[in-house]
Amino acid sequence: MKRNRFVFVLLLTVLGLIPVFSGSRAYFRGLTQIIDLRNKEIVRADEPAEPLDVVDLQTNQKNVEFGRVFRDDGDWLRNFAITYRNKSHQVIVAATLYIAFPETTSTGSELHYPISVGPDRLKAIKGERSILVHPNENFTFNLSDVELGHLKKFLTANKRLLASLRKAEISVGFLLFDDGTGWGAGSYRVQDPKRPGIWIDAPKNE
Predict the structure, then answer these.
(1) How many other β-carbons are positioned within 10 Å of the β-carbon of residue 198?
(2) Which of 167, 142, 151, 147 has the alpha carbon at shortest distance from 83?
(3) How far is CA 192 from the centre of its chain?
(4) Domain coordinates of the chain in residue numbers?
(5) 101 in helix, strand or coil?
């Protein structure tokens, strides 16, 4: 009789613990998802003909490596800075970089945010020279606090939060050279003489 009562009590105890274990499993699963959001990664777009070498990459005042996951949260692109070396044989007078967020393709088009160095391209074409990056010289794209605010507003307007995104892809959008030619979309470019403002592949030297 006592043995049966012991088995009955044990059975009730086990049954009572099932909701506890189920709740704990759900809690830890949710906690894991939160922790996963702290895993961030910055990658570089594959542009084999890019006339730049990466010298340094930082975010939140710490060095990071392309393709290597690091831990951060919230404003994980605060103080983002990437330094390039100009390995072309021309002087760069204006440059545009894009920060893309591949995860945003799940709800539409991939979101891209531009950062610039030097004057607006049209002003540079007309002769403005606020920067001159000679061959083998370095220059840096910075995401200032003001720019970070603009980036977050841009993401929010597209129903995204920076803290919820885990991956950023960096690509050089366009480089303008002192002679009026440029580089973009994986090749050297010139303006179409018949359609000013339209850039086409530069003719190759035979």
Answers:
(1) 10
(2) 142
(3) 31
(4) 1-36, 40-201
(5) strand
- Phi and psi at residue 199, in whole multiples of 5°? -100, 135
* 3-class secondary-structure state, position 92: strand
For residue 183, give the DSSP letter. Answer: E
| Whole-model pTM over 0.85 | no
Report the distance separating Cα 37 and Cα 23, nearest Å.
22
Q: What is the pLDDT of residues 41-67, one digit of tens each?
A: 999 998 878 999 999 999 998 999 999
Residue 133 per-residue DSSP state: B
| C-alpha span between 107 and 158 (Å, rounded) | 10
Q: Cα(19)–Cα(14) distance, rounded to whole angstroms? A: 10
Cβ-based neighbours of 113, under 8 Å, separated by 6 or more: 98, 99, 100, 151, 154
Widest CA span in the chain: 101
pLDDT for residue 52 = 97
C-alpha 126/C-alpha 30 separation (Å) is: 55
Q: Helix count (H) and strand count (E) of the chain?
A: 3, 12
What's 114's DSSP letter?
Answer: E
- Is 151 within 8 Å of 143 (Cβ atoms)? yes
For 106-115, the pLDDT digits (tens) are 888 999 999 9
Strands (E), 107-181: 111-117, 138-142, 167-177
The CB-side HSE value for 2 (13 A sphere, CA atoms) comes to: 0
